[in-house]
């Protein structure tokens, strides 16, 4: 396993902590304020580190324009749609549904790699995807506070779920085009993060969202800005450009499962026996999906 592939696995591990820490922050600061602070801090830190390297910011700005503007627009749009989906959800049941729709992105990365990157798929790709999705949805559903009937009843307003599904499509396209347009050319993730943070800041001002600041939020905020935001997306770009893309994408099926486990530990909630079944399904589906994709 090369370093680029390992980078993608670390990105997934960092992202798995997002739900627990975001919940802590958003309860006091609000969703838009939390997003603005995380991505502005993460982007600023990334730019500071990047400017100290040979070539600095100039090297980043000399990257292919279709990557800077095309992938940049996809990145910011993904963030915006996902946060809007969460913010527009009417209740906790619909938040769970939003999560289910968003977790389509690993499957979509694999599927889009066929037309966008010229990958070939064996016939068992679809069964592998369905197995992994089943495990993903079981992991998410068991962590929700509502019953399945409540979840289905929450779909009277489908807009949040549709937005989350659209976000998953954008991330699937972004991950493939990053490899196609910027392979070995570097990364502009700090710029993408900063742009996302500024969009959230503007929306925060327009919405009039209220925030309650507490010094106890400093460490969770710094953690989110450094690890899931800056390092997470930076490492993901490296993996998509130079790593074993099918392997990293297959491993990313574990994101909701790991996220659920970490949330249970941090929030001190009793786990469900269904987590074991979810783990088996995700593992089996990830292995089958990885073996189904060939160059």
Textual characterization of the structure:
The chain contains 15 helices and 2 strands. Strands 1-2 form a two-stranded antiparallel ribbon. The protein has one domain (3-294). It is 78% helix and 1% strand. The longest helix has 25 residues, at 218-242. It has helices spanning 3-15, 18-29, 31-51, 56-61, 65-88, 92-102, 105-117, 125-143, 148-153, 159-182, 189-207, 218-242, 245-251, 255-266, 274-292, and strands at 120-121, 293-294. The protein is mainly α and 295 residues long.
Helix content: over 70%
Task: Please mark out the parts with pLDDT under 50 across 5 or more consecutive residues, or reply none.
Answer: none
User: Could you give a short account of the major beta sheet?
Assistant: 2 strands, antiparallel
| Silhouette | globular
Question: Element order, helices and strands?
Answer: HHHHHHHEHHHHHHHHE
**Which strand order spans the largest sheet, edge to edge or round the barrel?**
1-2
Number of helices: 15
Core attributes:
single chain, 295 residues, mainly alpha, 15 helices, 2 strands
């Amino acid at each position: 396993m090369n370093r680029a592939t390992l980078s993608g696995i670390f990105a997934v591990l960092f992202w798995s902590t997002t739900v627990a820490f975001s919940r802590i922050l958003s309860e006091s600061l609000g969703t838009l304020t939390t997003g603005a602070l995380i991505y502005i801090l993460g982007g600023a830190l990334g730019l500071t580190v990047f400017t100290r390297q040979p070539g600095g910011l100039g090297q980043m700005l000399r990257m292919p324009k279709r990557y800077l503007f095309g992938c940049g627009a996809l990145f910011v749009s993904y963030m915006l749609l996902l946060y809007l989906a969460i913010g527009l959800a009417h209740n906790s049941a619909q938040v769970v549904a939003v999560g289910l729709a968003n977790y389509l992105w690993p499957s979509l990365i694999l599927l889009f790699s066929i037309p966008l990157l010229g990958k070939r798929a064996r016939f068992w790709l679809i069964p592998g995807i369905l197995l992994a999705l089943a495990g993903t949805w079981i992991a998410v559903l068991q962590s929700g506070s509502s019953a399945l009937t409540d979840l289905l009843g929450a779909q009277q307003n489908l807009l949040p779920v549709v937005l989350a599904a659209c976000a998953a499509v954008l991330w699937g396209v972004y991950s493939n085009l990053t490899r196609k347009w910027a392979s070995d050319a570097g990364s502009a993730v700090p710029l993408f993060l900063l742009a996302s943070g500024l969009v959230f800041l503007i929306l925060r001002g327009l919405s009039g969202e209220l925030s309650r600041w507490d010094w106890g939020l400093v460490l969770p905020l710094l953690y989110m800005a450094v690890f899931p935001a800056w390092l997470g997306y930076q490492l993901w770009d490296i993996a998509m450009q130079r790593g074993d893309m099918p392997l990293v994408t297959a491993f990313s099926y574990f994101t909701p499962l790991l996220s659920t486990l970490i949330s249970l530990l941090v929030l001190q909630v009793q786990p469900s026996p269904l987590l074991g079944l979810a783990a088996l399904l995700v593992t089996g589906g990830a292995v089958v999906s990885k073996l189904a994709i060939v160059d």
